Amino acid sequence: MTQTASATGTTLSNPGFESGDLSGWTTTGTAFNGAVTDDPGWGWGCCFNQQGSYHLWGFAAGGDAATGTVTSEPFTLTGTGTGMVSVLVSGGRNDNDLYAALTTLDGTVLHKATGTDDEAYRRVTWDAREHLGKQLRVTVVDKATGGWGHINLDDVRVGTDPAPDPSQKGLAAHWDFAEGKGTTTREKVSQAADPISYVFNDAQYKPDSDPLWRPKNEADGVLSGALLFDGYSTWVTRAASQTQLSTEGLTVEAWVAPRAFEWGDDGKPSVVVNQQDKAAKRGFSLGVGRHGRWQFGIGTGDAWYEVTVPKPAALAAGKWAHLSAAFAPSEGAIRLFLNGEQVAQTAVPTNARLAKADVPLIIGRHNQPAIINGTFAVNMFNGLIDEVKIHNSALTPASVTSGHQKDVQTFAGGATPKAQMEMDRSRYDGDRYRPGYHFTAPNHWMNEPHAPIQYKGKYHLFYQHNSHGPYWHNISWGHAVSEDLVHWRDLPVALAPTEDSVAPDGVWSGDAAYDENGVPVLLFTAGNDSQRPNQATGLARPVDPGDSDLVEWKMHPTLVTSQTADLNVGAGRKVRFGDFRDPFVWKEGDTWFQLMGSGVQTTDGKDIGGTALLYTSKNLTDWTYSGPLMIGDVAAHPKTGQVWELPTFLPIGKDAQGRERRALLINPAFPAGPGEYSSKYVYYWVGTWDAQARRWTPDTTEPRLMDYGDHFTGPSGTVDDKGRSLVFSIAQDRRTERAHYDAGWAHNAGLPIELSMRPDGDLGFRPVEEVSRLHDGEPLLDISEPTSLTDANTRLAGIKGDMLHIKLTMERGTAGTFGLDVLRSPGDEERTRLFYDAPAGQLGVDRTRSGNNSSAEPGFGIHKGPLTLSNGTLTLDVFVDRSMIEAYANNHKSITTRAYPFRQDSLGLRLFGDGSTVKSMTVWKMGNMTD
């Protein structure tokens, strides 16, 4: 509860009933005897929202049947105050028999206010300046005995509230979001503080923090400050009856700067402000639809009238705009205005009247939103909102224009300010599970990173991103840049779904390549639900190739590859029509090659396996189909999927005959089920590639698993200027949808790895050498000579941390199973065990004690796979990054896994395996990827 206001400059005692009784007040009848309470809610609902602890609840004494009065002691309205008297009132609506009043000593009523048939308090302010120097009272009258026959009072303020602001004349409500901090925002007409919902008001995995207020800047005029609505957890709520709306005319206006646009689930807009029940044809709504096409709707009880702006009046992401919607039934019209100019109109009957909706008034969230994954309400605004006003009349076009011009005059130089709404990583400070040095999206959702490329000395990385919240939807291309592969700088979204582009419904995974001039181009999966398949390849080029950050991109106006049902994938077979995504592109000589992920079926529809379809081009826009590069066998290898996604085809060296060796990496997909294998594995094949003959010859058709940890997926790759074949991946976090909501983010990338060819011809890989640049200071431990486990563990005992790099070489000796525990609690109640099982010849991870706080998996279990030791030694390169654990063994196999310890002290390291020896071990503390 907020602190109770004092009655400055008066002798009024007990103005908010904080004595816990009626001290200073006189009663008649029985309506108010014993009615002072500290109840926050009324039993069958919530909440009063009283100030302080206590308030006067008229129902508490005798229900609705009791009658009576309660009157304050006399007070003098002195000239040291503002001359305003205000009270919090709620309860029944009855102007004659149920009201709070400001009176003279002889009982003459000067001002009065009744309830709104709602228990939630609203503030009523009376201008009593003409009575300065006189003695007055506050009296509450209850002569009503039927339903809602009670009235409530709290927090009488005398001489403290500001005098009426002339600018508020004619307004039913006005939120200027001037606070700059806190979890409430004050509505200026009623002076009531409305709660702001925000996920970190009561955070689950980090310290509490305020909603995302923008810093104040005088040059921004009326837009100084503003509140950033994060797209999924931020909204402002006001009880249904707290705002009294005119039924005969209404104008709703707001300044908005959308950060991105939603899909528009259920055909509903992302609401700016609403109090609507569209099914009942009641209330009103101002919101933004797909691709920035904003709209206004109003219900009259028998009809719902709605108008949407034409395409030229659509909003632009990242820019402020002033929206006004006027409901003018006397003129038979609803009019929409953008930046003071009328842009749309629809007719309404002249006898139409607003039918009020008995639902809360909400800013930033739809009253009846669609729900994603049973958890996330969509149809929510993502971006800045400021200066929300509801006028109790239909403003004329001239009034709207002059009002807009008045706002513009407050801006420095008369120029609309820049919308400051970059995604701030600091909102997650203190999150115990969010990785610090593995790449994460700055906010919200990411899945696979993709399209890595080098340009002008910088590495660029793109990734699948939903800026609206931590769930898969509204997918665009996030973008980051680095000079060393491990420290990353966030850039604006590179590609987003746009109206009339080749990708109106999603910009899904793809790749980057260089054009004939050495300038990067992006090839992406263009989502268009009006076509079948809804997946094809689009192309984008940088607007300014001279910009080494490559911030701005423009899509090519037409698709460059599309799937047809008659693609030749072999006799008696057909392509899996409808699955066609994730281009991977490279150039050899004067020819560009493109792989597209898909699947192959028999002509009668039985799945044969995934495939990578090969295309060639001489110019990046005209592609010729060559056939399948390779076709999987899902019957023999069920975990390889009916469809292959994200085919990645990278060189790893040449064999003794000078033939180019390559590795084909794929992400299995299971559109026909079962889902148990989804988003868990990356399989690969190694073989020889003949570009001239367009022929790939794998050493074996047997798929091999790269990572044994069940969390490594979504590969993408590039060859950098050092000749290294680099691979990026996504590390699934496997948390519940509720945990994603509460955390505010989902998933992160694995460390970039470098591929190589082992002496036996198999694929080798290891983290890029640049990871050493993340080391924070000198090693915490450095063992360089053979040491017993006992001595090593003694030296490890004082080392704690959840952002560590451990380089460890152990000699098996006589041990059967040996390895390293990380994120270990002092009593071994929790730990994640990386082990080598020598008799079985397997590398594994035991997560049975890892802790699964927030995990979608009830039990973690053990994951393992084959690995041959090198001369009896195991070398582990281990990276612990809060919930993220990566271990690379002998530069040949890896384990990517997660741990969500319950205990705060699960930070230790310990070696195990009696009979083994530590040959060397170094431990570093790690810095952040944004340092």
From TrEMBL:
Domain LamG-like jellyroll fold positions: 248-398
TM region(s), chain numbering: none
Chain intervals with Polar residues compositional bias: 1-16
EC number(s) per entry: 3.2.1.26
InterPro entries in the record: ConA-like_dom_sf (IPR013320), GH32_Enzymes (IPR051214), Glyco_hydro_32 (IPR001362), Glyco_hydro_32_C (IPR013189), Glyco_hydro_32_N (IPR013148), Glyco_hydro_beta-prop_sf (IPR023296), LamG-like (IPR006558)
Region feature (Disordered): 1-20
Alphabetic keyword roster: Disulfide bond, Glycosidase, Hydrolase, Signal
Gene3D superfamilies named in the record: 2.60.120.200, Exo-inulinase, domain 1, Galactose-binding domain-like, Glycosyl hydrolase domain, family 43
Pfam families (alphabetical): Glyco_hydro_32C (PF08244), Glyco_hydro_32N (PF00251), Laminin_G_3 (PF13385)
Span of the signal peptide: none
SUPFAM superfamilies: Arabinanase/levansucrase/invertase, Concanavalin A-like lectins/glucanases
Broad enzyme group: hydrolase
Annotated CDD domains: GH32_FFase
UniProt xrefs under SMART domains: Glyco_32 (SM00640), LamGL (SM00560)
Family: Belongs to the glycosyl hydrolase 32 family.
Protein name per the record: beta-fructofuranosidase
Lineage start: Bacteria, Bacillati, Actinomycetota, Actinomycetes, Kitasatosporales
